[in-house]
Amino acid sequence: MSQKILFLSAILFLLLGPGLLLAQTSGKIRGKVFDRENGEGLPGANVIIKGTTRGAATDVNGEFLILQVPAGLYTLRASYIGYRDVTISNVRVSIDLTTKLDFEMPAEDIEVGEILIVSKRPLVNQSATNAVRIQTLESIEKLAIRGLTAAFALQAGVVFQDGAINIRGGRADETGFRLEGSNTRNIMSGQNVVTIIPEALQEFQIQAGGFNAEFGGANSGIISQTLRSGGDDFHARLQIESDEWPGQGAGEQVLDTFSYGYQDYVLTLSGPIVKDRIKAFVALEREHFDDRRRVHEWSGLDLQQLARDLVAEDPDLVNRNDNIEVDENGEIFLVDSGIRGGRKGQIIPALSTPDGTIDDFSNRKTLNGSLDFAFNPILFRFTVASTFQEQQVPSDPNDTQIGDRPLLTLLNKARWGRFEQSNNLFTGKLTHLISDKTFQVLSVGVFDRRQKKFDRNFGNNYLLYGDSLAVAEVLGPEFASNYRGRAIAPEEFDVFKFPFTRPGARMVDFQKEKQKYISLDYKFTTQAGNHELKFGGNFERWTLRRITNLGRETQLNLLINNPDLARAIRNGPADPLFEEAVFTYRRTGNINAFGYDVFGNEIDNDSKLFDGTKNPKFGAFYVQDKFEAGDLVINAGARVDFFDFDQSISKNLQDPEFDRTNFDVPRESLKDTGTKIEISPRFGLAIPATDETVFHVQFGRFVQAPQFNNVFSGRGIQALSFGAGNFIVNPAVAIELDPVVTVQYEAGFNKSFSDLMAFDATIFFRDVKGQLQITQINTAAGATAGAFTIFQNQDFATTKGLELSFTMRRTQRISTQISYTFSDAQGTGSFPNSSLGAVNTQDPIPKVVSPLDFNQRHRGSIAFDYRFGSEEGGPILQRLGFNVLFTFNSGHAYTRSTGGLGQQGPEDGGILNNTDPRNREALEDIGASTTPWVSQIDLRIDKSISLGPIDANFYFYAQNLINAENVVNVFQRTGSADDDGFLSNAGLSSEIVASGGAPYVELYRIANLQNRQHQWAFNGFNRELFTRPREVRFGVSFEY
Amino acid sequence: MRLRSILAVGCVCLVAIGLLSCSDLPSTAPEFPDFRTMTRFINAASDVGDVEIILQPTVGADFTSFGTVPFQENTPYMDIPAGNRIAAIRVGGATVDTTNFSLSSDGKITVLVLPKASDMDARFAVFIERRMFDPLPSATGQVRFISAALDTVNFAIVNTAADTVVASNLSLADKSGYLNFEAGSFTFGVTVSGTDSVLGTVQVSVSNGQRHTAIIFGDQANLGFKSFQDDPQ
Question: Which residues of A touch B24 (CB under 8 A)?
Answer without folding.
Answer: 4, 460
